[in-house]
Design brief:
endopeptidase fold (from Nostoc punctiforme), six-stranded antiparallel beta sheet, rod-shaped, 278 residues, alpha+beta
Length: 278
């Protein structure tokens, strides 16, 4: 049986050249090309949208703070404790300063008050001393007047009987005066200057020192004393102390710096001897 003849299709005159052959297209190639194109367009669209978004909204930068570690937290706590302690110390110091200032202020006030009180006391003592001095001056003036009257009518070696009272009155007017060695009145005496001043009131001139005063007048026994007799302590001619017998076993003298002019008992300090000049 004869095979049927297939009609021949005439070829293009450039078909034999490879570069002029018409490429074959299939469904898979077309799909790939479409996908690539779509991807490119999508990327371009996303990029454009992103650019617009960044252009429209401000950029905000977020800074992440460091996380506190255990060591840093401990240091912070210690620092806080130190600051609290420092504040407490400042407060305590302030309280101490305030207390010191208050104490100083009180001390100043106390000192001022003490000075005022001392000044007031000194003024009172000064006035009292002035009053005593005025009283003594008046008494001495009276005694001097009496002594002058007595001396004009009698001799110095034999004064009138009233002379003893004058001497004793003068001596008692000096009670409380100070004892000062070498002093001779009017507010301070030693033993012999007081005797000299007292007997001078009635015109009897005694030597200045006790040694010489123990040798004047007439010697008298201590058992036969009379008011107005001069007592002495120590040997006759070298006596170290003198006083005047005023009766009742007592004598008046400028005793010593601690006692001044006082009245004392002979029993407590017996004399060595006595002389009589009145």
């Amino acid at each position: 049986m004869e095979e049927p003849l297939v009609p021949l299709v005439p070829m293009s005159h450039t078909a034999h050249i490879r570069s002029h052959r018409k490429p074959r297209s299939n469904a898979s190639t077309m799909a790939m090309r479409a996908g690539v194109a779509g991807g490119i367009l999508g990327s371009v669209a996303v990029a454009g949208a992103s650019a617009s978004a960044y252009a429209a909204e401000p950029v905000t930068q977020t800074i992440e703070l460091p996380t506190l570690t255990a060591d840093v937290a401990s240091q912070v706590a210690q620092s806080a404790d130190a600051m609290q302690q420092t504040a407490a110390n400042y407060e305590l110091q302030a309280e101490r300063d305030a207390a010191t200032a208050k104490a100083a202020k009180q001390a100043a006030a106390d000192l001022k008050e003490a000075k005022a009180e001392a000044k007031k006391k000194a003024e009172a003592e000064r006035r009292a001393a002035a009053e005593r001095a005025a009283t003594r001056a008046a008494e001495r003036a009276t005694l001097t007047s009496k002594a002058t009257s007595a001396s004009t009518s009698t001799s110095a070696s034999a004064p009138a009987s009233g002379s003893v009272a004058t001497v004793v009155s003068f001596l008692k007017a000096q009670l409380g005066d100070a004892y000062v060695l070498g002093a001779s009145g009017p507010n301070a005496w030693d033993c012999s200057s007081l005797m000299q001043a007292a007997y001078k009131q009635v015109g009897v001139d005694l030597p200045r020192v006790s040694q010489d005063q123990s040798t004047v007048g007439t010697d008298v026994s201590l058992s036969n004393l009379q008011v107005g007799d001069i007592l002495y302590w120590g040997a006759k001619g070298s006596a170290y102390h003198v006083g005047t017998y005023i009766g009742n076993g007592q004598y008046l003298d400028a005793a010593n710096p601690s006692k001044g002019v006082v009245i004392q008992d002979l029993s407590g300090y017996p004399a060595t001897g006595a002389v009589r000049v009145l």
